[in-house]
Structure formats: C-alpha cells, structure tokens
Write a structure and sequence with these properties.
Distance between the termini: 111 Å
Order of helices and strands: HEHHHEHHHEHHHHH
Helix content: over 70%
Strand order of the largest sheet: 2-1-3
Radius of gyration: 26 Å
Number of helices: 12
Oligomer: single chain
Strand content: under 5%
Structural class: mainly alpha
Length: 337
C-alpha cells in the first residue's frame, strides 16, 4: 500500500513538473516580444532640435558626398578601370548603406514619442549592419593590399592586380560579409525575448540586444567574441603588415617628391582605418560591460566614418579632385557650346 502511495505521489509530482514546464513554455510563447524600444543616446532636452538638425545634415552630406564619389569614379574612364577606384566606389556604396541603416533611427531619438522598432526591423538592422560592417573590414584589407602592390611592386602591379581580379575580390568580400551578418543575426535572434523590451542603445546591436534575452547567452557571447575577433584581428593584422612593408619601400625612395606622393596616397587610408577599427575593438573585443562610452564609440563606425570617407579620399587624392573638376566643368562647357 505504501509503495502504491509512493508511486502515485511520484507520478503526481512528475505530472505536476511537466505541467509547470508546459505552463512556463506557454507563458514565454505568449509574452514573446513583437517590438523593441530604442532608448537612444542621452542628451539635454533643450538641445533636442539642435541634435536632430545636426544628424540630419550629417546624413544628407554623407549620402551626397559618397554619391558624388561614386558618380565621379563611374563617369571617368581613367578611374573606373583602376582597382583602387573600384574599391573606393564600393566603399562609397557601403558607407551610404550603413548611414541609411543607422542615422534615420538615431534621428528619431530626438523626436517626441516612443521610439519603437518592430522585431523584424531589429533583425534586419542587426543583419545589414554586420553584413556591411564586415564587408567594409574586408574591403579595407583589399585596399591596403592594393596599395602594397602599387608601391612595393610597381612594375608588376598591372599584372598582379587587374580589374577582373579586383572585381572577384570585391565579390568575395560581399559574400563573406553576408555570411558573417547572417551568422550573427541567426545566433542573436534564435534566443527567446520575453522580458523587458528597452534596448539601451541607439540601434539594434548584438551586446545591447543580448541583455534582453530570456536564456543563457554564454554561447552567443563566445561566438560573437571569436567571430568578430577573428575578422577584426585578421584584417587589422594584414593591413598593419601591408603598411609596414609600404613604409619600408617609401623610405627607399630617393626623391622627396616621390616620398611625399606615396605617403599622401596611403595617409587617407590609414586615417580611415584607425577611426574605424579602434572603436570596433573597444565595443566588441572586451569583457561585457554596459558602459556609457559604448554609444559614443559606436558613433564612429556608424556615423562619423561614412561622413569622413568622401572628405578624406577627395581632399587627399589629386586624381579624384581632377576627375571631379573635369566632371563639374563638362556640363558648363556643353552649355556654352
């Protein structure tokens, strides 16, 4: 009799435990989030309009500047046949994409009302940001390799870096970037999100979104650290190696004018790479902390770098400036005729 009671008790407890698990799963399924609220970046309320106008101008100038470079490279036969400017045109497309993904949402932070983003919109924003961001990392590496060949192997450069090869390298960068973005988005949003929906950030990025997951995020954090760490570290190492070899080659140039032109050619790229990689390493390659500096650091790769790239590559590149002047002068000449 006692054994029967004990068996019934264990069966009842087992059923009760199963019912509790099913109830918890049902409760989670019923409370899964359908939208997130982006808290944005902190700012004094009296400066709301000023910040809105500032980022609106940044966005417009970013789009116009990169579009102008793209049109200039496409319109000048001397430029779009050379690998360096093929890479520059692709970089302009990426900068326009990153700016369009991030800045309009950032501007909404300076408007009245709740700044919500649908769950699907959050997935898309995270995917496209990491897709374009990692593609940009690969592209910076290709640009460094291109400069290495042009300066260190000038006689063999036309054979080693053809337009066809540069197009294949760019295609490979796009494919690798899309795989990276898909991996990060899939790993991040396979987790259930059923609790708070306030993302303490100005866009949907991995560290900020993972804090809201209703499950253990250890695997996600490890994979994110390794995946992004490998991409950033390998690209940065190859860029650094390229420029060490480039500097050695430049120092062997006997004429001061030759050294000046070589340094000028590479100076723009080094500036952009530094502005891009240092904040990315700060955000993703350190122990998990919710620092207010994360938002400030994220402004560099998402807002400032896309804005600066047209200025840096135009003002420091004589060939782009010459092609731009020629293009702007052509309509005037045609109208006079």
């Amino acid at each position: 009799m006692e054994q029967y009671k004990s068996s019934v008790s264990r069966s009842f407890q087992k059923n009760e435990g199963q019912d509790k698990i099913l109830w918890d799963m049902e409760r989670i399924n019923n409370t899964l989030l359908t939208a997130f609220i982006l808290t944005g970046i902190p700012y004094p309320l009296r400066l709301r309009t000023l910040f809105f106008v500032f980022f609106l101008l940044i966005y417009i100038l970013t789009q116009l500047g990169n579009l102008l470079i793209l049109i200039t490279v496409w319109a000048d036969p001397r430029l779009h046949a050379r690998p360096m400017y093929i890479f520059l045109g692709v970089l302009s497309v990426i900068d326009m994409g990153i700016s369009s993904i991030i800045v309009p949402r950032l501007m909404m932070n300076f408007t009245l009302g709740v700044k919500s983003i649908p769950f699907g919109g959050c997935v898309a924003q995270l995917y496209f940001y990491h897709f374009l961001g990692s593609t940009q990392c690969f592209l910076y590496t290709l640009m460094a390799y291109d400069r290495y060949l042009a300066i260190c192997q000038p006689l063999h450069y036309p054979v080693l870096m053809t337009a066809k090869l540069s197009a294949l390298l760019v295609a490979g960068a796009w494919v690798a970037g899309s795989i990276h973005g898909a991996l990060q988005a899939t790993l991040t949003f396979r987790l259930p999100y059923c609790g708070p929906n306030q993302v303490d950030y100005f866009f949907c990025d991995i560290p900020a979104v993972l804090r809201l997951a209703c499950a253990d995020t250890t695997v996600n954090e490890l994979v994110t650290f390794v995946d992004i760490g490998v991409v950033v570290a390998s690209c940065f190492f190859l860029i650094l190696l390229s420029y060490i070899l480039i500097i050695q080659a430049i120092l062997r140039i006997h004429t001061a004018d030759g050294r000046r032109r070589a340094f000028s050619t590479c100076g723009a790229h080094v500036t952009v790479v530094t502005v891009y990689y240092v904040p990315c390493a700060f955000i993703y390659l350190r122990p998990e902390t919710n620092s207010p500096l994360d938002g400030a650091a994220a402004l560099f790769p998402t807002v400032i770098t896309p804005f600066l790239n047209p200025l840096i590559y135009t003002l420091r590149n004589q060939e782009v400036k010459l092609a731009l002047k020629t293009m702007l002068r052509s309509p005037r000449t045609m109208s006079e005729v």
